[in-house]
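Hi R.,

Here's the input for the aspartic acid complex you asked about:
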Amino acid sequence: MFKCCFPVRCFPVLMVILVTSTVTAQESSDRLTFAIAIHGGAGSSPDMFSAEVNQLRHDAMQQALEIGQNILVEGGTSLEAVEAVIRFLEDDPHFNAGKGAVFNAAGEHELDASIMDGSNLDCGAVAGVRTIKNPISAARLVMTETVHVLLAGPGADEFGELQQVERVENDYFDTPATSKAWNEFLKEQQTDHGDGASRQLPFLDMVTGSCIGTVGCVALDSHGNLAAGTSTGGMTNKQFGRVGDSPIVAAGTYAANETCAVSCTGIGEEFIRRAVAYDVAARMKYQGVAVDDAVREILINELPAAAGGIIAVDGDGRISMRYSTGGMARAAADSSGRFEVIWHEEPATSNN
Ligand code: ASP
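And here is the predicted structure with aspartic acid in place:
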């Protein structure tokens, strides 16, 4: 059912082909009433999973899309849709967010998330939380209940306690799959790289798939408002205290009604350096570039090969979902009747 055309380890060579071949943008100039797109992490080629796990991940993406779509059909806000979709995927052990968050180098879990309201540029984020079951909801509370944008570490966990969000022990986030991935990752590092391997970690991660499964959602609602959110456990074996792009507004997440809503996935350090999420919006604002062209240009011309993926939606409901890695679980729906979970690699010439 899930067929990948290319061996995963070939993807650096195939990066340009894949970037130019995975368009999922709609070319209509009509404004759609609503539109929603979801990613389940760059690097997540179906080749990395068993058929059973692929099916479970596929079904979870489909359910998440239904949740988001229903909220938007009923006139709910893009913020509500983004939070509900991400909460659902955080509770699914097959994604690197919430329950399935990967292990850091200390054998624990530190989770990052952010959310942004395109109608007023309000945003909220948490970084390095260890006991909050659904970091995306804590991020939304940072946005609505504080004057701040980003809370990190123990203060963020304590904020969750004060806000009465659901708390869990850190080992709640352990799963057999993430535990296995961490152990295999450590073994591979010892075998292949000996000392000094940590500087190469992010690049190894995208090859071995040990960071796959970050989740993100972008949406346009029937009120004309955009929103975006991203949630992750980061990268397997990341240094204790490391924060990636996902909780950094303008790097991993961005939304502004005048341009677009964006969620990124991939090697966080590369996305932070280039303020990638904001760069998509800035190209649209200052150069008049279409959302899908902005996303494609950044993946091809700005980011290193195989750095990750980007989903975005503009104020008319045009969706872009592109990546430069071996795959990216993704899904999209809109008011024209589109509803699709895209799981397999498209041939180089396809343009869906
Ligand atoms: N961007 C995330 C991070 O660097 C990881 C990912 O998207 O897979 O923490």
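One thing worth noting: The longest strand covers residues 35-42.

Cheers,
M.
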